[in-house]
Design goal:
It is a single chain. By secondary structure, the chain is α+β, with helices and mostly antiparallel strands. The chain is built from five helices and eight strands. The protein has helices spanning about 40-50, 70-75, 95-105, 135-150, 180; strands at about 35-40, 55-65, 85-90, 115, 120, 125-130, 160-165, 170. A six-stranded mixed sheet has the order 7-6-1-3-2-8, with helices on one face. Helix 3 (about 95-105) packs parallel to helix 4.
């Protein structure tokens, strides 16, 4: 399957978070850090993170594939290689990266490979895309620790991919903060019931 060629222009988005009122595109204020996660359908995944204390802003998009500035339809077609991803901009003095990792692991089932529940396809895979060596080390350590917890609970092996952050391409405007715009909207996200700590 050949990846769609994509486009050079970014998706036009409203540069204001519906919940926080803050910009969702850089530049972000000094002292903030970013994290990038994929944990299934990005509608519910984004809500997980915007609810955390110390999170400055969030946005949804596509990462880990080949097609620049892909459309939702292209990503759902399975040929772009992208995962549905959430960009998290946070204040490290209020929220540690480990807190974000806890929310990540507890909010989905990281053992399902190319799916989350009824959502099937490579775009729903679990991934942690890291911004530096410290995030990479923390992510890998957290995976090992959570695998111990899952194994003790009789769960399968973690399939989460962990690696340096690829380019992040913003999704179409109507996907940003989707569950705030559509409170009754679909969210198939569910954890394993196994705590991280």
């Amino acid at each position: 399957m050949t990846a769609p060629p994509g486009r050079s222009d970014e998706m036009p988005v409203t540069n204001r978070h519906l919940i926080t009122g803050r910009p969702i595109k850089p530049p972000f204020p000094d002292g903030l850090e970013t994290a990038l996660f994929a944990l299934g359908c990005f509608w519910g995944a984004e809500r997980v993170f915007w609810r955390l204390p110390g999170v400055h802003t969030t946005a949804v998009g596509y990462a880990g594939g080949q097609t620049p500035n892909a459309t939702y339809a292209e990503v759902c077609g399975g040929a772009t290689g992208h995962a549905e991803a959430v960009l998290v901009v946070y204040e490290p003095a209020q929220t540690a990266y480990r807190d974000l990792l806890r929310a990540f692991w507890e909010s989905h089932d990281p053992t399902q490979g190319m799916r989350q529940g009824n959502d099937i396809g490579s775009q729903y895979r679990s991934a942690i895309y890291t911004g530096d060596a410290a995030q990479l080390a923390a992510a890998e350590q957290s995976r090992a620790a959570y695998q111990t917890k899952l194994s003790a609970a009789g769960r399968a092996a973690i399939t989460t991919e962990i690696g340096p952050a690829p380019p992040f391409y913003y999704a179409e405007d109507h996907h940003q903060q989707y569950l705030a715009k559509n409170p009754g909207g679909y969210c198939g996200l569910g954890g394993t019931g196994v705590g991280f700590d």
